[in-house]
Amino acid sequence: MSDKQMKARFTLAHPGFTLDVDLQLPGRGVSALFGHSGSGKTTLLRCVAGLERPASGYLQINDETWQDSANGIWLPAHRRPVGYVFQDANLFPHLSVRRNLEFGLKRIAKTARRVPFEQAVELLGISHLLERLPDRLSGGERQRVGMARALLTSPRLLLMDEPLAALDLKRKGEVLPYLERLHDELDIPILYVSHAPDEVARLADHLVVLDEGRVTASGPLKETLIRSDLPFIFEDDAEAVIEGQVERHDAHYDLLDIRLPGSTACLRLAHAPLPAGRRVRIKIKARDVSLSLEQARDSSVLNLLPATVERWFDLPNPAHCLVELQLGDQRIIARITRYSFDGLNIRSGQPLWVQVKSVSLLAS
Ligand SMILES: Nc1ncnc2c1ncn2[C@@H]1O[C@H](COP(=O)(O)OP(=O)(O)OP(=O)(O)O)[C@@H](O)[C@H]1O
């Protein structure tokens, strides 16, 4: 991995709201901006796009400086190579999908084009829609066309402002795999605004949490989701995201074995075959993890894995607590009753067995 980076420092005052951020983000993959309504997510994207001009600002995207107020550098919005995807794809209603896409493409000199038309169309799976007018597309299809159009502007950065927010659950499910493809197959960093923890868990590599215009957390997704000073782990749906590599597929039982880095054990889950060696992202909810001191040999639970207790936290509900566990090189969390916690005499550094009742594959 190279040390590609984005640096964004902005101080911008609106009446009643100040954005004051200083971020260092990976220069590849998806960085999610998460926060309550009004926390400043869109304002931050607008600063990055050059649509706001803060009194003090610095923006570096990999090896390019787009803005440096201390040195009089300011790249205006129309010269910033960003692709913007909004909640609504905003396609020209009188132009076919093909002409909408060509509109984005024509703005870029042939020699500067980084994403060929065919690649964008193939990545978003829209070749069969090219001759249609936008009003003959579903919401999900419109968003995919909007994303292809953004790619065809040859961006060095994609800005996505809640691109799935206007879609129902089914349409969201249709678009998410395409977003994953953009993430996996293109070397263009994405800043992704979302309210939905599920989307963030599935897509993001890095998580930024904003509150009242300030950054309250910024770090790799896996670590940030389970930080005890952030609200995520106190949710009913608290979860950890870990990564692994497909080891094998058991065709007889239709089970996939996933090797976890640093662990001797594999996770098993019901899933169609995937090629050995494929890296996958897995979500484990805290409430689906139980703990035992011995390796249960007569359980129907597929996943019984050795782990070590790191630490624990109280929860607002006094009947429960959360235990953070080291599983190979990664961390997961278990929500158990305080009764069980005392009964098992949990202490930090303790080796024990985790039983994981349900595991979901998020991305491959
Ligand atoms: N041009 C402006 N003038 C004055 N206030 C503004 C302006 N633009 C944004 N704000 C204020 O800045 C704050 C942050 O807005 P912003 O849209 O960035 O939040 P957000 O986190 O994206 O919210 P949401 O999730 O609801 O889209 C809000 O209080 C908003 O009213």
Automatic annotation (TrEMBL):
GO terms for molecular function: ABC-type transporter activity; ATP binding; ATP hydrolysis activity; molybdate ion transmembrane transporter activity. Keywords: ATP-binding, Cell inner membrane, Cell membrane, Membrane, Molybdenum, Nucleotide-binding, Translocase, Transport. PROSITE patterns: ABC_TRANSPORTER_1, ABC_TRANSPORTER_2, MOP. InterPro entries: AAA+_ATPase, ABC_transporter-like_ATP-bd, ABC_transporter-like_CS, Mo/tungstate-bd_C_term_dom, ModC_ABC_ATP-bd, Molybdenum_import_ModC, Mop_domain, P-loop_NTPase. The keyword Transcription regulation does not apply. Residues 1-237 form the ABC transporter domain. GO terms for cellular component: membrane. Residues 298-364 form the Mop domain. Pfam families: ABC_tran, TOBE. Gene3D superfamilies: 2.40.50.100, P-loop containing nucleotide triphosphate hydrolases. This is Molybdate transport system ATP-binding protein.
